[in-house]
Amino acid sequence: MSTSSGAGRQQRGYFPRWTLKTSGVIMPEERLSWGQTIVSGLQHCVAMSGSTIIAPLLMGFDPNVAVLFSGIGTLIFFVIVAGRVPSYLGSSFSFIAVVIAATGYAGQGANPNISVALGGIVAAGVLYGVIALIVMWSGVGWIERLLPPAVTGAVVAAIGLNLAPVAVKAVSANAFDTGIGLATVLIIGVVAVAAPGLWRRLPIILGAIGGYLLYLLFANGLGFGKPIDFTQLSAAPWFGMPSFTTPTFQADAIFLIAPVAIILVAENLGHIKAVGAMTGRSLDAYLGRALFADSLATIVAACGGGTGVTTYAENIGVMAATKVYSTLLFAFAAMVSILLGFSPKFGALILSIPGPVIGGLSIVLFGLIAAMAGRIWVENKVDFANPANLITVAVALTAGAGDLTLKFGAFTIGGIGTATFGAIILYQILTSPLARRAE
């Protein structure tokens, strides 16, 4: 529920009446000028594009299809939460390990068993939806008891830390790549801190452009690195239909992939809590809707060949850097993504972005994800003098950062899953009546 009377009046209509505001913190029911909205929306497209495209590539999915369904899923989310929760839905990394295991994907080219993976992702979306409906019917109390701020903060931090090696690896191939990655980080930081006016709200997109141009100058121009190859970009058509794929349902793949729904619930809860902390208002009233919207978006995506989706921490990182939370940005970004999904040339352009530049962007965005945990803990006054909180967070951070992987037969839980389930279970054990009696 909103803490301000102005936002409270917004509840009279299904969608807010977005009011114009051009400076300071821009709340979800406010908007920038239309020109700034377009540019800031494009920045969110840039923020999501790296992971939304990298995740399907790692699973052998079509990146254009993933981008298309990320836009469709974001619009589904926007409508179901009544335009009151700022979030972008992109490809979830939580599916990567189980999809590879279920399909036997070799790691290069198209996944020949993609339809089997899609069936499992649909099942995960259905399970996710059942959980969401329970939340909508019974409220969020049981989830809050299961996932209090100490745990949600730990999960958010673990996600950022788990992704950190991906970012570091992208800038570590050689000294040139490291230099480009760090230069990209520096550009983002300088823009966020020192750029005038509107430009200060665009650190990610300007960092991407700046890093790309630097790489182009020193690699293609001066020969210090591997040149960017524009052959595919030149040959790709501007418009074309994506390659849709329908799911097939196999029991082993379903049982392997469906439990990822639990991780998506924890991710979404953590993201909603993070946005609530940043905006200074509780979004708990929309949590059930947010979970259901994410589940429906995952089902729709998987029915057409897209990846499972989740509310994107990368875009939360952009909001943290810009202080712009207007939900209209995400509606615009979603429409742009849908259009881009029908453009093979866009896919080729994104694929032309050098790895070190993506790595530099990822260092900032993944770091901002982890840093959001601190805000969750501070805003909720989490007591780290309490051993239950301290040990839960410590274990989750180590499991996530170290990518602790657990195997149960054919089922594998990666670092994010281990940190999530570990934090939930450990916290409940350490705060149980038996543990309290032992004090």
From TrEMBL:
It is a multi-pass membrane protein. PROSITE patterns: XANTH_URACIL_PERMASE. It is found in: Cell membrane. It comes from the Bacteria. Its main location: membrane. Keywords: Cell membrane, Membrane, Transmembrane, Transmembrane helix, Transport. Pfam families: Xan_ur_permease. The chain crosses the membrane at residues 65-82, 88-107, 114-140, 146-168, 180-198, 204-223, 244-266, 286-312, 324-342, 348-372, 408-430. InterPro entries: NCS2 (IPR006043), Xan_ur_permease (IPR006042). Belongs to the nucleobase:cation symporter-2 (NCS2) (TC 2.A.40) family. NCBIfam families: ncs2. This is Pyrimidine permease RutG.
